[in-house]
Amino acid sequence: MHETDPCALPEGRCGDLAFRLAVYEAGHALTARALGFRVLSVKMRPRPPVMESDKVLGNTFRSLTTVLENRCIELFGGQIAEDHACATASCCTGDVARIDELCRLISGLDGRREPEDIWFELEDVALEIFRAPKMRDAIVPLAEFLFAEVARGETIVPGARVEAWMDDLIGPRPKRGGLLRRLTTRA
After folding, report:
1. pTM (predicted TM-score)
2. Which SUPFAM superfamilies does the entry link to (predicted)?
3. How far apart are CA 115 and CA 109, in angstroms?
4. 91: left (phi over 0), alpha (psi -120 to 50) or beta
5. DSSP H helical ranges for the chain
6. Pair 128, 183: CB distance under 8 Å
7. Domain extents for the chain?
8. Domain 15-185 adopts which CATH fold?
């Protein structure tokens, strides 16, 4: 057995599960923004926000692969934000299993890359997003906004309000798809 609890809860404000969820959701929203997508809504449950890429699929395997890659990056974003703000990532979410499943689907569609290679490539993209100080610095203020919304009784935060906060915290949304292309072509 483990000598230490690998799922120990963080202390302080991050010990509050509701605040931790807000941090996690802030990470998803910030990641979607960095990828150039508009957030349509944030459900204050352990799920990524609904973003415009959910509504536009296209009719090719490449367009499907791109949607799945974006979803993986977004899933990584919640855990990365939680790690930055709370010094730990939640071990009790389904994101790891979902990322693994999506990477396997991408590999099957792609036919050239192994699931593990896709995992590390997409995780690197998500990590790169949060290397920018303004992204790291935006996690807690955006989480505080989301946390306050939950305290007011909101379980679904309209995307326009989340977008306005992100505009103030990190500036306008970048061009869609540019970040993923730029980072993956470097690898």
Report:
1. 0.83
2. FtsH protease domain-like (SSF140990)
3. 11
4. alpha
5. 17-34, 61-86, 95-110, 115-129, 133-151, 159-170, 178-186
6. yes
7. 15-185
8. Methane Monooxygenase Hydroxylase; Chain G, domain 1 (1.20.58)
If DSSP codes are grouped into helix, strand and coil, which group holds residue 42? strand
Q: What is the DSSP string of 91-109?
A: SSSSHHHHHHHHHHHHHHH
CB atoms within 10 A of CB 108: 11
Per-residue pLDDT of the chain (187 residues; tens, 9 = 90+): 344 555 566 778 888 888 998 999 999 999 999 998 889 889 887 665 666 555 455 566 677 888 899 999 999 999 999 999 998 876 556 788 899 999 999 999 988 999 999 999 999 999 999 999 999 999 999 999 999 999 999 889 999 999 999 999 999 888 765 454 444 444 4
